Every structure is written in structure tokens, then in C-alpha cells.
Amino acid sequence: MDEENRVLLRRIFVLATEALEIAQEEAIEGQSPWLEAAGYAACAEGLAAAAEDLARVVAVIRIAAEVRRPPQSPTP
User: Given pLDDT bands bounded at 50, 70 and 90, which one contains residue 27?
Assistant: First the structure.
């Protein structure tokens, strides 16, 4: 894999890290003993949104890694 492709994939992994950090913030907030039902629901929604974002980023990583792989010679 050439350096340009590595840089691209590393940048995409930054997006994955950001989604995980947001999910962590929501999960931590959801542990608060002072939340009411609406607060827990809001944290759950934020957590779900972060998980969806992460799933999208993972899909992009998979596509980028697959597309950018050099062609393999057929095996007999």
C-alpha cells in the first residue's frame, strides 16, 4: 500500500476515534445518578447516533481498504 493510501486510511480512522469519543461521552453521561427518564433517553439517542456514525466510518474503511488493495494474481 502506498503512503497516500495509508494517509487516507489513517484520516478515516480519526473519524472512527471521534465517533467512539462521542459514544463514550454519552455513555458516561448516562451513568449520572441525577438524570431523569428523558435524560437517559437523550443519552441513549446520542449513543445510538454515535454507533451509527461509527458503523458508517467502518464501512468506508472497509471499502477504501478493499478498493486500494493491489490486484492479486489468480491462484491455480
Answer: very high
